[in-house]
């Protein structure tokens, strides 16, 4: 276990948040729930049939199990879903069917209703199936219109990379969700990534660089203009956030280069949150740093929701689930 994840677990234990695992009949999820409760990382509710869960794992201590077919909350959640979606054409019957038969909707409704602090799913569900109910029910934070993702990148100790960011810890966004964000979406990604940096990565003073192939007008192109516009929007929406752009990666990370290319910038040469201009750059960037620099890449972490929801890889391990639950707990604050 890395030092970064050690710190995540310690913080999660202190928060004692309640996380719902929507795919409660999946064996990896059940085994992860056991570990989470044993280590006091979070309080856990599994959604599923108790008989199926106990047939796979025996009687579970300290873990709540909710079967939507038997829960007294199901009609309440169905009415809540109908109220939220009737303007979009959802019928009462459709709402009842989703609350009863789709655990991803039931879990999102639990969070929306205040019966859980956050939700984790995706071990047997596609990303779109996880995010759809979250977008429809939990929705985005006030002032944020974009759901995005970030990775927390932790460089090996005593490496060159450990001199960048906050002792080698940086946040990269968006590397998994938005293929070609607008200037407004880039601004949302920057604000959300700074929040993730503070809550999950323990970065006390996020310094956000919006990256480009240009630094402060050194090149002229519509792609550069988009990043510069996004920076202006961040300053309008989050005036207290330390943010600058457009910056090339070397100007963002290396003090001498930053001083040369962007003199007077409070971010250049000191950035610990890097915002990539599109998904291609973000995905390529984090994988290159992970593979060539040997960095630990923690994520993707979903961000921008009013209450936290995180999507697992379908190839996730038990330990992956435990880690994502701990990070979700931190996002609840």
Structural description of this entry:
- With 333 residues, this protein is an alpha/beta fold.
- The protein has two domains: 3-139 and 312-331, 3-Layer(aba) Sandwich (Rossmann fold), CATH 3.40.50; 148-298, Rossmann fold (3-Layer(aba) Sandwich), CATH 3.40.50.
- 45% of the residues lie in helices and 16% in strands.
- It is built from 13 helices and eleven strands.
- The chain has helices spanning 3-15, 27-38, 50-57, 74-85, 92-101, 103-112, 127-138, 183-199, 222-237, 249-253, 255-261, 279-292, 318-331; strands at 18-21, 43-47, 64-66, 118-121, 148-154, 169-173, 207-211, 242-247, 273-275, 296-303, 309-311.
- It has a six-stranded mixed sheet, sandwiched between helices.
- Strand 7 (207-211), helix 9 and strand 8 (242-247) form a beta-alpha-beta unit.
- Helix 1 crosses helix 13 (318-331), helix 5 (92-101) packs across helix 6 and helix 8 packs across helix 9 (222-237).
- The longest helix is centred in the middle third of the chain and has 17 residues, at 183-199.
- The radius of gyration is 21 Å and the shape is globular.
- The two termini are 24 Å apart.
- The mean pLDDT is 94.
